[in-house]
Amino acid sequence: MTKRRKRTGLIITVLLLLLFVGAYGTYHYLNRSEIAVRLPNGKISVTRPEMGHVTIVGQVTEAGRPLQGVDIYTLQGESETDENGNYVLPYGPAKKVSVSARFTKFSGFSLGRSMVKGLEVAPGEIERLDFDFRPGTATLEGVLLYDDVPLEHTRFTITRLFSTQEKHELLQESQETDGSGRFAVHHLPEGKYAVYVLGRGTDVEVSVAEGAMVWRDIELNAGSVVSGEIIGLADIDAIKERIDATKGRELGILSSYVRAVSQVTLVRGNFPENEWEHLSAPRIAHSSISNGTFTFTSVSPGVVSFVIGGRSVLTTDIPAEGIDDLVISLPEEWSEPGRIKLP
What we know:
Elements: H1 2-31, E1 34-39, E2 42-47, E3 54-62, E4 65-66, E5 71-73, E6 78-80, E7 86-91, E8 96-103, E9 112-120, E10 126-128, E11 131-132, E12 138-146, E13 149-150, E14 155-160, E15 169-176, E16 182-188, E17 191-196, E18 204-208, E19 213-215, E20 218-220, E21 224-231, H2 236-245, H3 251-260, E22 263-268, E23 283-288, E24 293-299, E25 302-308, E26 311-318, E27 323-329
Parallel strand pairs: 3-10, 3-11, 12-19, 12-20, 21-27
Antiparallel strand pairs: 1-2, 3-4, 3-7, 5-6, 5-8, 8-9, 9-15, 12-13, 12-16, 14-15, 14-17, 17-18, 21-24, 22-23, 22-25, 25-26
Helix pairs in contact: 2-3
């Protein structure tokens, strides 16, 4: 009996020791500050995200070749790729993140080419997001005009219109015309593009084929006016009073709501309501929301979507004469901060 008790006691001691070692190892693994993440060009060391936060890592390439010095940025911060094209970008609490990569060394004519991608993230995780700037072989040249007058030394944007299968990704390039309004955009992939100057006129759609050299004068004009009202938003003044009354206890939720509903963005294309697939569309214009009303000028005819707080809220077809009484009715969840889930 004594031997059996000793054997039982020894077994229990060994089991407890194994349990302690396992628990210590798990605790050490979960709480270590540095984690090795494997990327195509080797491993990089990443600091474990804070509770509820996320860290985004990835590589930026040009047709597979690593790119150094590419600016990576979000609304919360920025980073830059190293000699291997790798980057690390910490991010605060979120479920969806929009990440931009801007490459300013694409060609002697270019002011910069950028890509924007959307990413759904899990709090506390390290998420992977890569960018590949694949240069095409098409060239678009011409003269940029506004009401038949060449736009000299004017910065403009050309944005690729992706298909619905390529949602959550945007490719655009910023350039500047010369002293006669001429421009030349090189290394374009095949596809459809929108050309526009923010605040100076309508957008013009143009198509280029792989390997083609396209001459196309881009004629912008005053366009039309689109204005209206938004129904269903909470009372912003009341929210600000609530922030003061609670001495900031609800500051996070309330201030996020105020920022989200302070302006409405007009994008080109048809996108499902309450989705954020509009990342793949050119942002044609922004309008502040004042007392529930908004006004856009210089809008081209065609299908557009209205975006508030990162969410598409209405898609409609704009006629050539514009619209002066458009009504955007929001679902009930928009009426109270905290009920609407913002990206």
